[in-house]
Amino acid sequence: MRPFELMEHTADIGVRAFGSSEKEVFQNAAAGMFSLIVDPGLVRDVEGFSVKAEAEDHEGLLVAWLNELLYLQDSRDLLLKRFEIGRLGETTLEAMVFGEPVDPGRHKLMSDIKAATYHMLKLEHSSGGWTAEVIFDV
Fold first, then answer.
1. Nearest to 80 by CA among 92, 68, 63
2. Cα angle at 37 between 31 and 40, to 5 degrees?
3. Pairing of strands 122-126, 78-88
4. Computed from CA positions of residues 88, 93, 99, 105, in that sequence, does the dihedral angle turn out positive or negative?
5. Cα 50 from chain centroid?
6. Contact 94, 51 (CB under 8 A)
7. What is the pLDDT of residue 120?
8. pLDDT exceeds cutoff 90 at 16
């Protein structure tokens, strides 16, 4: 199963993520989002950061998770590469994420994602696993 694919959208850009579990689809959505920002092959996972997110439901939790990662990226000038969700509850999520500070000599930033949005948001479970679709405001 591929972890994610990019989605075309009129004015913005999106990611369709896949996973065998809900945790995995959240992790793959994060990896897909950061693949829009920078080539993940150029990012090292040398520093770890604790992340918590909270929302009223699982779809909202997916958006909150991705927006918390964007906040971490912006506030600390980081690029993230590896995402490990430790606990995924009904309304809360706790994870460790790994990456490194932006190095303008090595990292060519491709997109400036402002936020994950609720527009066309999907989080579905089927016999084939989990699928999430998220559109980003760029």
1. 68
2. 50
3. unpaired
4. positive
5. 14
6. yes
7. 92
8. yes
For residue range 22-58, what is the model confidence (pLDDT) as tens digits? Answer: 999 999 999 999 999 999 999 999 999 999 999 999 9
**Distance from C-alpha of 13 to C-alpha of 46, rounded to nearest angstrom:** 28
The residue type found at 127 is: S
HEC letters along 90-101: CCEEEEEEEEEE
Main-chain dihedrals φ then ψ at residue 55, nearest 5 degrees: -160, 175
Average pLDDT in the chain: 95
pLDDT(10) > 90: no
The pTM is what?
A: 0.95
Tell me the Cα Rg of the chain: 14
Whether the predicted pLDDT of 7 surpasses 80:
yes
Burial of 82 (0-12, 13-18, 19+ CB in 10 A): middle
**Residue with structure tokens 């199963």?**
1
User: What's the one-letter identity of residue 58?
Assistant: H
